[in-house]
């Protein structure tokens, strides 16, 4: 994709005509670097070698986004859209290849409007949330409106709503209520023509596609989402129990694989496996009194007792689980995260058959014992997830999945180029192949990994055949093909394109 100096100048002139000067940051602006870095969540992409955008447009209303798309298309400059900036490969603000592009940053579009509905008339509680809001801002607005309402999405409060909902979105309410995208009932999006479309105007195929299949801004720029809220009890209970290998972690973890996905839907017990410890972290939608008999009956090996229970409201559980016991509900409004100062590399798997005990023994003894070892995060599925058909949304990892595995490693602060940590993630991923889902080996798009494959452009359009390499891992069960057909409908010229965007496919192909 080539962009001459003349078209660059014309592009900037076009933007200046429609976007106020104070919202436009070109490379010569004194604040360019800080605006660009403002929501970069992975320091790996803040180096001299990173391909930087031509400018950043910090949109504060829909017309700025429309103007950005229209000017970009007119002058042949592609764009990247950024909501919370958490993309694991930084695709919302950098290009992995040398190309001229600009960034539309939505952090200024972050209102949340909660409507409590009229339960006795069957009108559900909903919220309109703009893409630039963080999950923390959404949760805070809901929890302040009612302690009986919640939204099922990710754990990290600084994750942006726009990117999160573009890829699915799951957290501690997953087993009871499924994914964030399972609750999206409407959305507004700026398409490649610069039009603002709602659910009816974009049509059912595109509305299906943006709810989890848009990871990477493939279809347009989603401005806002209308989501249905879910009911929670006034008291929920959290617990965290670490078990070392000496304390039986291998046996407990082996058992956990079968138990956790089959527990009552109200109970979510995930595991963080690091060094020689498996840390079991749980949220139960109810009181400690109700939780204890369930744990004693279904998972006595973990040894949960009253001293482990922490009762609180659902809103309070958000900072408690992610930020620690000292954090308050106001802390989830903070848009900067301690993790921001580090670099990371991650990838993911799905496990459909429990991994044998001796394999877990080997994982602890070799992989987790290495000096540069990272962390494995195991999130159990089952419950509501298993009851949603694979074709209901683009996210196909539903019935039959025992749990999701995220492999992640961090470096930074003390220097180092991350080579050893990155190699650990790649090597452990290779080791795990016989033990995880196959044909395809499934992965979660929100844990984006360019090692799974990158697009190839043929004749100025992204190749569907090449895209299948990575695409069918994220979107198995025929969903990738369906996404490609939706892409053809809404963006046949493939304007919204990046290293892992959905390629357009003609239904006859
Ligand atoms: P960002 O702005 O980087 O966007 C991500 C992708 O979506 C980019 O390709 C971008 O172009 C595109 N995009 C963004 N806004 C868009 C819009 N408005 N319209 C169209 N496309 C858009 N996931 C999870 O399910 N559960 C969890 O608990 C967590 N926890 C977590 C913690 C931390 C620290 C990180 C870094 C990540 C997670 N995630 C997660 C993964 C997270 O859901 C994923 O990275 C999201 O894509 C992040 O969304 P942002 O808006 O922050 O990212």
TrEMBL record:
InterPro entries attached to this UniProt entry: BBE, FAD-bd_PCMH, FAD-bd_PCMH-like_sf, FAD-bd_PCMH_sub1, FAD-bd_PCMH_sub2, Oxid_FAD_bind_N
Gene Ontology MF terms in the entry: FAD binding; oxidoreductase activity
Protein name: FAD-binding PCMH-type domain-containing protein
Pfam families xref list: BBE, FAD_binding_4
Record carries keyword S-adenosyl-L-methionine: no
Residues covered by the FAD-binding PCMH-type domain: 49-232
Signal found in the keyword field: yes
Organism: Triticum aestivum (Wheat)
Cofactor entry: FAD
Family: Belongs to the oxygen-dependent FAD-linked oxidoreductase family.
